[in-house]
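User: Second chain of the day. Same drill as before.
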Amino acid sequence: MHFRRTMLRRGLAGAVLASAALLTGAALPAQAWEPTKQVTFIIPAGTGGGADQMARFIQGVVGKHNLMKQPVVVINKAGGAGAEGFLEVKKSKGDAHQIIITLSNLFTTPLATGVPFNWKDMTPVAMLALDQFILWVNSDTPYKTAKDYIEAVKAGDDKKFKMGGTGSKQEDQIITVALEGVTGGRKFTYVPFAGGGAVAVQLVGKHVDSTVNNPIEAVAQWRAGSLRPLCIFDDKRSTYTTKVTGAMAWSDIPTCKESGVNVDYQMLRGIFMPAGVTKDQVAFYVDLFKKVRETPDWKEFMEKGAFNNTFMAGDEYAKWVEAAEKRHYELMKSAGFLAAGK
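Assistant: Same format as last time:
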């Protein structure tokens, strides 16, 4: 009898401990992290540009396919050539409900302005793609190739030709300075605008002579017959062969090198989080963006914008970013764009 009472007491004690464990979660396996409130998706650039279009597209895909329980809210913080957005993430250490899409101002803004920010102040999540650049002119101009246009610049007065771009001392102006290496000493008058969408509109309106817009920023105007692509700043042509206009696909645009313009440049489209987040939190977003990339919507978006559909995460992504920072430093040093003390 005594033995039975002892076992009963032990059984009851075990039940109490099990119940306590259920209440506290102490004995349960750890659950994968996921957002518990809305996720703020910051764009360190203006509306209408490539980063803005991609972030808003991702927001729509996540909602359409129910890839996350909580909503995604997109916010543009373009001030200071994107510094406003990056500093917002820097001060939000440990906040896993905030992500930011990046472009080349991840490197160019701190290097050109001296703003107290570096990509290492954030946590790399994933590279979504690499964005191309194309030399565009208005379709009413006589220039059919990049060589035609460069020869016209050479023959004109210094600073006669206007190049429209996004921001000052950013990727568009870096490419412009690189082009000046093949114009026989002639320089462009570089005209900065707030976003890639505005740049394309200015070229359609003939307020500038050329631009180096991303494909997605000018594809609508190309399809409408208002703009003409002269060359793509890559060492190989695009792989997309579906016709964009009645006569041309992205793959029909020659590389700038094919026209004797030895300039190439591609831009990061990637995701970062604030510093101080956990591996589980980073893993959630890596998995989320893998799901986004598996949708037919993403494949269509990649082709529409002629993106280099490259994905990286983890150490591979961090190493790529570190190498890209070094390359931008050298490019900006050569262009004379570095802030004092850099």
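The longest strand covers residues 122-131.

User: Great, on to the next one.
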